[in-house]
Amino acid sequence: MKILNNKITLLICLFLFSSVMVAQEIIVEKTVNADKAKEPGQLQKIDGIIATVGNFIVLDSDIDKGYLEISSQGNSVANITRCQMLGKLLEDKLYAHQAIQDSIVVTDDEIKKMMDERINYMVEQIGSMDKVVQYYKKNTVEDFKTYFFDILKENKLTEEMQRKIVDAVEVTPEEVRMFFKKIPTTELPVFGSEMEVSQIVVMPKVAPEEKQKVIDKLKEFKREILQGASFFSKAVLYSQDPGSRSNGGFYKMTRKTPFVKEFKEVAFSLNEGEISEPFETDFGYHIIYVEKIRGQEIDLRHILLTPKVTEAALKEAKEKITLIKKRIEDKEITFSEAARTLSDEKETKANGGVLINPQTQDTRFELTKMDPSLYGQVSSLKEGEVSYPLMDEDQKGTKKYKIITVTNRINEHIANYTQDYVKIKNIALKEKQIKAIAKWSEEKIKETYIKINGEYRDCVFTNNWLKK
Q1: Exposed, middle or buried: residue 340 (CB in 10 Å: 0-12, 13-18, 19+)?
Q2: Per-residue pLDDT tens for 106-129?
Q3: Distant-in-sequence, close-in-space partners of 219: CB < 8 Å, separation ≥ 6
Q4: pLDDT confidence of 48, banded at 50, 70, 90?
Q5: 50: exposed, middle or buried (Cβ count in 10 Å: 0-12, 13-18, 19+)
Q6: CA dihedral of 39, 44, 47, 48, whole degrees rounded to 10
Q7: SS (H, E, C) 224-245
Q8: pLDDT at position 395
Q9: Do residues 335 and 352 lie in contact, with contact meaning Cβ atoms separated by under 8 Å?
């Protein structure tokens, strides 16, 4: 499986390395000493255009910035040569160039929202905006934002082009069978210990008076905004939506955007400049302000408030789930039947409480890759045993009680076609995606203007960038 694993690692690198940041400044071309060019430990401040791909350029300093970004994420650059780094940058430029040729749209508003989120995160990590600007060696905040905007836009074009190539690749059951058949018996992968887990969730009931409090508060916000207060400021100060709060509650959406039904219905019922009345979704209560309507696309801001759960409601929820646990253990009802009829979790109740692994979309969780909090809750459970009531709190601060059971334990084993079909299918798909990317790259390199300058022409690349 060494060859297979190397190929899969290559595919992962194609995606992980797309986040490497590169500048787009035009500087007079200069040549670089070949030895210096290829030794990451001896970086020089000589700069110049070292490569051109379509409408994009690569500067010698871009390679240094690539090393800086990888190091800042805690990864080693010891075994990455400058030639290898240039090869990756050339790939990114090719993706971005072809994305433009294929009319892949990346809007400035989309990039601005992404930039604001990234900058907020960096400020939280580093301590201040000034320190962020200093880290990236820019003179002003505006210089940094212009630089960072261009980086994110190019990265997004690269990402969307990669997605377009890979999304078009599918694998049939027959291809999966043939793929598995070709693996030598001695090279079959070994899959680690796994388990299948089910849960039942009881949500504490929110008291009517708590609901009314947030409705009244939202109505108060609406009155103040209509009298001249800033919706942006209200959202920043009070909204409980972590995804939009820092950006003043802003979202851009169409009817295909994956928002809950109730939110979409209200948003598309409003006229430009109108503010909704408070309405309820699974997340809590909202008001929406429509800033701009562009055909089927709208810019909006919203404020989310979630009613508080009282201690009495939490106690009642715990008592209810404790009773469900007792009924299961007394054989009055099976775990799956209880999940279907008594669980408050929409995502799992229909299939008897079975959890789906978000990484694989399978029902199995590999113990070494399981979320630590979930592992801590199930690791000591025997198969069929029901846990004590556990209180969970999600990112929104919503509290709930749940019970968990392990429905199946699978020991470490050599890959079996029938038992491990989903995993084998995923490996076969990744290999096919690698081949599709390689074929796409080979074709686009032939038809795209590419120039490598100076001593970098001595590099040995995986792809035929020199068109020899």
Answers
A1: middle
A2: 888 888 888 888 888 888 777 888
A3: 277, 278
A4: confident
A5: buried
A6: -30
A7: HHHCCCCHHHHHHHHCCCCCCH
A8: 66
A9: yes
